[in-house]
Write a structure and sequence with these properties.
247 residues; alpha/beta; Rossmann fold; 8 helices; 49% helix; 13% strand; binds NADP nicotinamide-adenine-dinucleotide phosphate
């Protein structure tokens, strides 16, 4: 698909993969709206880039989401691409003295339910675009769980399933293309606790998304995700063992 002259919303666009994606898309002549909860970080991020606008929003707050959509309509008039990138994650193992229920509730809310709500509310706006897209950022753990992020992995598996169903439905009924970006370990703040420093740079993930847009490739297995996915297709058990060998 064409990725210039579009208006694009990136949730969690003030840092990491979202920020690098905002940078590349703004350089390609798009208007990019970035959101996140931390106003100061967002403003700092937007100030470094051209044509990037910050709107502080908690994806888990329906009031914030309604306000965001009203501002998009009023200040931008249209929206062509929604990138659901914001997420939360907890690193722990089952059996440790942790409150897994609360952690899972936050992950499911942020990484799954809030995406469903925002997407549903934006579908009428995206439908008015000549060529629109939704990108859901899941993970390598969407098809093989990492046991040190067990409930996060489950939330991304739910997102993967939802994304496939959404893609198939919208392909038949609309002009909206549905992409899924599946990064491996990436060096961002998010992954610091799980050895993220050994991960690939977030710019590489952003470049992978741009290539995916250009080729209309809908499920994007970035870096090591591609190898693990191949192994998963031949042997789900071997893929599970491979991802968890050091854990
Ligand atoms: N890093 C990895 O190894 C890795 C691997 C695979 C997939 N991913 C996925 O990549 C995406 C981006 O992660 P990242 O690595 O770039 O991490 P990051 O730099 O920590 O970015 C996450 C962003 O989400 C925002 N956010 C979190 N909760 C939010 C909420 N309730 N409302 C609005 N914004 C919220 C954060 O901003 P505020 O805190 O200011 O709200 C932050 O800007 C996530 O979906 C993650 O699951 C990451």
């Amino acid at each position: 698909m064409n990725i210039t002259n579009k208006t694009i919303l990136i949730t969690g666009g003030g840092s990491g993969i979202g920020f690098e994606t905002a940078k590349l898309l703004s350089q390609k002549g798009n208007k990019v709206i970035i959101t996140g909860r931390t106003e100061a970080r967002l403003q700092k991020a937007a100030a470094q880039l051209n044509n990037v606008y910050a709107i502080a929003t908690d994806v888990n707050s329906e009031t914030d989401i309604n306000n965001l959509i009203a501002r998009i309509k009023e200040e931008f008039g249209s929206l062509d691409i929604l990138i659901n990138n914001a997420a939360s994650a907890y690193t722990y193992k089952f059996g440790e003295a942790v409150n897994a229920y609360d952690k899972a509730a936050d992950e499911i809310q942020t990484n799954y339910l809030s995406i469903i709500r925002l997407t549903e509310k934006l579908l009428p706006v995206l439908s008015q675009s000549i060529e629109a897209a939704i990108v859901n950022v899941s993970s390598i753990v969407a098809f093989v769980p990492g046991i040190n992020l067990p409930t996060y992995a489950a939330s991304k598996a739910a997102l993967h399933s939802y994304t496939q169903a959404l893609r198939y439905t919208l392909a038949k009924t609309s002009n909206i293309k549905v992409f899924e970006l599946m990064p491996p370990l990436v060096n961002t703040e998010f992954s610091a606790e799980i050895g993220g420093a050994n991960g690939i740079p977030p710019q590489v993930v952003a470049e992978g998304l741009i290539k995916g847009f250009e080729k209309d490739e809908y499920e994007l297995h970035i870096g090591q995700t591609a190898d693990l996915y191949k192994l998963f297709l031949s042997s789900p058990q071997e893929a599970l063992n491979a991802l968890n060998q050091d854990r």
